[in-house]
Q: What sequence folds into this?
């Protein structure tokens, strides 16, 4: 087991599957907004502070040097993501059909909701950005982001955000500077001295 930035044992925790709408958004992505923000954890209010979310830009994690990483490498990265952040209150994985089909078993075994997006440029980024805003407006304060894309720098600058990346070299400079810290998935270790342990 790996200790996460939360200071807890990184043990995968099943997350309740939200219902998804079936309409198509203007961005070309399926509308994966939940009708209700569910969690296995109980509390006095659905908007209680301090909750944590995990957002996964799947294709971004499955590529290396412009090519798709071998299936076993991608599977190891997915395992590392959930070892580190599997205890999050809310999880969403977004990607194109080929990426989700390749690793669907890993997500189904963890009861993790997935959203299929169109091949349109940045479709997964836009969908996850919308989810970030949706959750931030409902009391979520801390985010794990499995992506290396500078698109998310503005979001990371507004909330405590730990980036999960296969390596440090390919993380966008803007995202790296905006994030609370970076965890290198291929080594499962914090790669940034600014990474803090959240209570």
A:
């Amino acid at each position: 087991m790996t200790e996460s930035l939360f200071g807890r044992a990184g043990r995968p925790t099943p997350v309740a599957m939200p219902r998804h709408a079936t309409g198509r958004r203007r961005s070309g992505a399926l509308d994966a907004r939940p009708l209700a923000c569910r969690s296995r954890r109980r509390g006095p209010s659905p908007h209680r502070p301090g909750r944590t979310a995990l957002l996964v830009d799947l294709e971004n994690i499955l590529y290396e040097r412009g090519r798709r990483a071998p299936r076993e490498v991608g599977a190891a990265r997915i395992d590392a993501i959930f070892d580190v952040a599997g205890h999050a209150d809310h999880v969403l994985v977004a990607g194109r059909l080929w990426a989700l089909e390749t690793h669907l078993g890993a997500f189904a075994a963890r009861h993790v909701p997935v959203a299929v997006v169109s091949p349109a440029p940045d479709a997964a980024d836009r969908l996850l950005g919308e989810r970030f805003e949706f959750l931030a407006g409902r009391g979520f304060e801390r985010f794990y982001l499995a992506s290396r894309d500078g698109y998310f720098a503005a979001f990371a600058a507004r909330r405590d955000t730990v980036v999960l990346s296969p390596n440090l070299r390919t993380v966008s400079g803007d995202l790296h500077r905006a994030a609370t810290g970076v965890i290198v998935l291929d080594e499962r270790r914090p790669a940034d001295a600014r990474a803090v342990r959240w209570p």
